[in-house]
Amino acid sequence: MPESGKRRAEAVSLFKNDRAIHPHVRGLAKSLNTSYKADKTIYRDTSKG
């Protein structure tokens, strides 16, 4: 298996693990997501000027 394929398989397994954990931290993820969205809008506004 080429090196890139190995790395990709690792990333996929990490992603699957993350999704398996996610239900336990849904509330935290939600609060993080809302704050992240706020940060993104602020960043978008400042990047215009």
Structural key phrases:
elongated; single chain; 2 helices; mainly alpha; 49 residues; 86% helix
SSE topology:
Blueprint: H1 3-21, H2 26-48
Give a summary of the structure in a few sentences.
This protein has helices at residues 3-21, 26-48. It has 49 residues and is mainly α.
Q: Would you kindly provide a written description of the structure presented here, covering whatever features stand out?
A:
The chain is mainly α. Helix content is 86%, strand content 0%. It is elongated. The model has no long low-confidence stretch (mean pLDDT 61).
Mean pLDDT rating: 61
Work out the number of β strands: 0
The major beta sheet can be summarized as:
none
Strand pairing plus helix content: what structural class?
mainly alpha
Please state the overall shape, judged from the principal axes of the Cα atoms: elongated
SSE string, helix = H, strand = E?
HH
- Residues in β-strands, percent: under 5%
Low-confidence stretches: none
Distance between the termini: 48 Å
Radius of gyration over C-alpha positions, nearest whole angstrom: 17 Å
DSSP helix fraction: over 70%
Number of helices: 2
